[in-house]
Write a structure and sequence with these properties.
Oligomer: heterodimer
Strand content of chain A: 15-25%
Structural class of chain B: alpha/beta
CATH architecture of the largest domain in chain B: 3-Layer(aba) Sandwich
CATH class of the largest domain in chain B: Alpha Beta
CATH topology of the largest domain in chain B: Rossmann fold
Number of domains of chain A: 1
Number of domains of chain B: 3
Helix content of chain A: 25-40%
Largest interface: A-B, 40 and 45 residues
Radius of gyration of chain A: 19 Å
Distance between the termini of chain A: 69 Å
Strand order of the largest sheet of chain A: 2-1-3-4-8-7-10-9
Strand content of chain B: 15-25%
Number of helices of chain A: 11
Largest sheet of chain B: 7 strands, mixed
Distance between the termini of chain B: 44 Å
CATH superfamily of the largest domain in chain B: Thiamin diphosphate (ThDP)-binding fold, Pyr/PP domains
Helix content of chain B: 25-40%
Chain lengths: 277, 380
Amino acid sequence: MAIEPFVKKYLRQRVLPTIWCGGCGLGTAMRVIIQALDDLKIDQDNLVVVSGIGCSSRMAGYLDANTVHTTHGRALPVATGIKLAHPELEVVVIMGDGDGSAIGGNHLIHASRRNINLNVFLLNNGNYGMTSGQVSPMTPHAWYASTCPFGNLEHAFHLCDMVKSAGATYIARTTTFHYMQAVRLAKEALEHKGFSFLEVYFQCPTYFGRFNDMKDAPTMLQWFKKNAVRYNPEKPRELEKGQFYVGKLWEDNTKDEYADLYRKLCKRAKEMMQAAK
Amino acid sequence: MSDAKGKTVLLQGNEACAMGAIFAGCRFFGGYPITPSTEIAEHLARKLPTVGGVFMQMEDEIASIASIIGASLTGIKSMTATSGPGFSLMQENLGLAAVLEAPVVIVNLMRSGASTGHPTGTGQGDLMQSRWGTHSDHPVVALAPATAQEMFDLTVKAFNIAEKLRVPVVLLPEAVVGHIREAVYIPAEGEMEVINRERPSSYDNLLFFKRDKSGVSHPPDLGTGFRPHFTGLTHDESGFFTAVADEVNAFTVGLNSKIDLHREFLTDYCEETVEDADILLVSFGITARACAYIVRALRKKGVKAGYFRPRIVWPFPEERLRQIAQHTHTFIVPELNLGQMRYAVQRIVGPEKRVVGINRVDGAMLTLDRLMEEIKEALA
């Protein structure tokens, strides 16, 4: 199948095909991001994509932009350095659930707290796919993985709630089933000035699905469809077991963005220095 | 210096380091508080905003070094400062900086002891860690200042090396050198060389990581229109992952060749009365300052003693030490650890030479009296 021109434009075709398994949702997630970048006419020369380690983080190599594939969990502090050194760059951070909620969990809450204008796409497949399906902090309680063959005793994070309490100013969740919604939310996240966090559930039939009786992509996408509940702040409802909200969950435009505050601080500091002379 | 354009001021070693960083063009600092490095952060927190730079206190040392790598990739000279426990946390991304060829400067003020150790004591226990702390073969340069003046001078030099070779550079003062107060000459602009990384205006076939004859590659800064890909994976000259055996080999060998191909540029030592020395005192940092006095005292007593102090400790000035070893039979290596430099010296001078360590690990310095006493014992 021919790749559409707008998708082509954002891909480094010389490094394709991707390493992702058949049925993996990361191709869909990447197309969502490309569609959002193209709709917003984001200049690739001015775009920096920073990622950590894992299946999803390989996306940085495929996207034709300034890209930095860092160490496991450390995408956010690297992105922080990039954004504060050059606030005019558009910085997108791509992490998996292991990256963002386990090894890099501390960086995630602190980046949320600072409200730097970074766009985080946390691509969540509920397990460590790259290393063949170990339990992650996002594997649901009592579900299975290669390192919890008798069921997961731990409980998954509510990542969106966590980054909200940490201070993120745009928060949304979607899935690879909800393509149109995902594009809309990705665009909102990119346009939001401040720390934005979009969690994207994507299917990993090869490992997560296999261990949990969902051996192919359609079955997993049906699972997303069945359990996703559109969030309406006017009408909050009690979620049944296994259900999760999708949609924009939170936006706060009252908090100043960090780089703006820093610019003001520099001006103040210079004036104070001159006054002291 | 009558023709000096700069000024001489009384400074703490850490302040001199911070001022050296500003002089060298450092405009990004990411750090985390830890004794005995904190004054560097405090000085830069006040100074950087007034010179168009960024100061960030990060959530830990892992994030600190990550942030300076990010800033460096955009073309901004960047630095962090820490001590042993923080330096341990930084090892992961020190390897990343080496592999991404991101020029960064890491100041590690050595306190005393492993783990939390003796935080307010001084030591020299991180000599080997600065070379081999992160996993696998990687290029790194380490400098050992011995005075407040050298905290300024060698900080500038650390940035120059980082920019020229695109390597992480470690400045390795002892806690006491960070806290010592001495007269420091601050040069005027242009009075001391400041090197900036090479920025090619074009690349053949987008081979951003192709090495020049000196082993250095010059990938573009982020956001300058080239759209490079940086990865911690082994990569080919285009910057993309490779698992092809020949390319993996070429990557690792090429990355590490930068040091060997710049041996002359990376050789920096001080020596005194080595030409006819029977005995050579080899030491670094604050301990070496005492050794200089000892050698002069021994000479007055008629002992043919010499003094040798690397200011760049990694790569070690092996060639010079080997030359001296042709006529010197005994090497005395005083250090504030259990023999890390002695190990390097023995390897360089060969098993037939006598190499004696004088070691102190209680958080204090080796005093002149104790040094003299132990040297007498060693020579008896």
